[in-house]
Amino acid sequence: MASSETALSFSRLGREIASPVIVDLMARALANSDLLSLAAGFTDNVALPRGLVGRFAAELTQGGLDDEPLQYGQNQGRSRLRELSCQYLAAQPGECAEAFDPAAMFISNGSQQALYLAVQALCDPGDIVLVEEPSYFVCLEMLRGLGLRPIGIPCEGDGAIQADGLAELLRELDSAGERSKVKAIYLVSYFCNPSSRSLSLGEKRAIARVLLDVGYEIPVIEDAAYRELYFDAPHPAPSILSMPEFAPFPKLYLGTYTKPFATGLKIGYGCCTHSEWLEKILCIKGHQDFGSAHFSQAIIERVLDAGLFQDHLAFIQKHYAEKAFVLDHALREGGLREVGWKWHQPAGGLIFWLRAPEGSDLRMESVFCKGCIEQGVLYVPGELCSASGGLWHCARLSSGALPPNKLREAAGRFVAQAGVLAQSSGSSGS
Predict the structure, then answer these.
(1) For labelling alongside 13, which of 180, 374, 402, 405 has CA 20 to 30 A away?
(2) 85 in a structural domain
């Protein structure tokens, strides 16, 4: 049927915005039960805290509460939840209690909204945000959607940041007259999505030193969405908020209760050390929603106040460690290393970062990717995690959502396709 809609004159954002790849990946994973998704970083239904949510939801709907959780709340978020969150963060390895101030914290609709608000407050179209290479592909898409330029910091193959490379990059930006365009640096520092590694204390210190040496006292955004999802022990490096090396910088620490508690509640938070930046973030948030879901906040607040969050974490840490072992074992047992693929077994999080032999093409439109989809398995191509559009030979897999038997099956399908790729490469080179 022909459309009778009136043509609209959209804004720059309206003209250029496209649906994020993550929306497509999630839709595919949810719509086709035969397609086994190693792409979308879902948490596992088995690990959802139904008992805790049910218990406190019932309590919160009894009525007669002084603070009505079914009403609107504060734009900045519930004061008690911010206080408890700061206490929790201050107890993490290496942290200073004084670094976490409830007045500097705001509650958001997941940490993704906090990131979006922070970048909106800082950047205009054409501005630059420095990111790791690889980096979180949803963030890269968000930056590009806002008309910004994510530029990758030189990293080793496993994701380790090259301090000398960062210094050289900053000097190149200076030479190109683009210093004023560089508005922030974004780091995914704990069990990184996608590399699965964590930034060491030495790496963090080196980043701060290089930025200061070259004269870039820019805002530093630290995304710690996976920090709680360690398997054996927490990563020992403190956040940038507790490190004296980052004292001169405006800082924003992003955390969340979606990945470690319940994604459906959509509650995250940010801790911002720069009062004017925080004020601008809250102004934008006020225009968007004037406060994240009050009821969801109240449930998490009750869990923290009752001292039950740590018990829940202990359960899911063990659960996801077992699932990571299943996926790692299935990839190894299938012979993926024998055809030249490399990866490190994660120490936390939900993500595996795989590197096929150099020259392999795993992009979204590649023969390999299409073959995987035909065989019923989905992954995130490495190119989506690259600011430069490189990393064609890399793939991001998630061990979070599928049950163990399906993880093995999905890994088998993926490895089989890797075998086809190896045979094709061998034939073309002979």
Answers:
(1) 180
(2) yes
| Contacts of 279 by beta carbon, 8 Å cutoff, 6+ apart | none
Query: Residues 317, 374: one domain?
Result: yes
Domain final residue pick, 308, 340, 370:
308
Tokens 């190896």 belong to residue = 422
Note whether 316 and 416 are same-domain residues.
yes
Listed in sequence order, the residues at least 6 apart from 144 whose beta carbon sits closer than 8 Å to its beta carbon are: 150
What SS3 state is found at 33? coil
Residue in the structure block whose two tokens are 């365009």: 181
Q: Which two tokens stand for residue 259?
A: 């990945």
Count Cβ atoms within 10 A of the Cβ of residue 325 and give its class: 0-12 exposed, 13-18 middle, 19 or more buried.
Answer: middle
Angstrom distance (rounded) from CA 322 to CA 328:
10
Per-residue confidence in pLDDT tens, the chain, 430 aa: 455 788 888 888 788 777 777 676 666 656 666 889 999 888 999 999 999 999 999 999 987 777 889 999 999 999 999 999 999 999 999 999 999 999 999 999 999 999 999 999 999 999 999 999 999 999 999 999 999 999 999 998 778 899 999 999 999 999 999 999 999 999 999 999 999 999 999 999 999 999 999 999 999 999 999 999 999 999 999 999 999 999 999 999 999 999 999 999 999 999 999 999 999 999 999 999 999 999 999 999 999 999 999 999 999 999 999 999 999 999 999 999 999 999 999 999 999 999 999 999 999 889 999 999 989 999 999 999 999 989 999 999 999 999 999 999 999 999 999 999 888 876 444 3
Q: CA-CA distance, 299 to 68, in Å (whole number)?
A: 12
Structure tokens at 128: 């630059």
Residue 429 placed within a domain: no
Convert 123-132 to b/e letters by CB count within 10 Å (16 or more is b): beeebbbbbb
Distance CA 236, CA 200 (A): 8
- CB contact set of 350 (below 8 Å; sequence gap of 6+): 41, 43, 193, 226, 229, 259, 320, 398, 399, 400
What whole-number distance in Å separates Cα of residue 313 and Cα of residue 257? 11
Long-range contacts of 211-215 (CB under 8 A, 24+ apart): 211/166, 211/170, 211/185, 211/249, 212/248, 213/167, 214/167, 214/170, 214/171, 214/174, 215/179
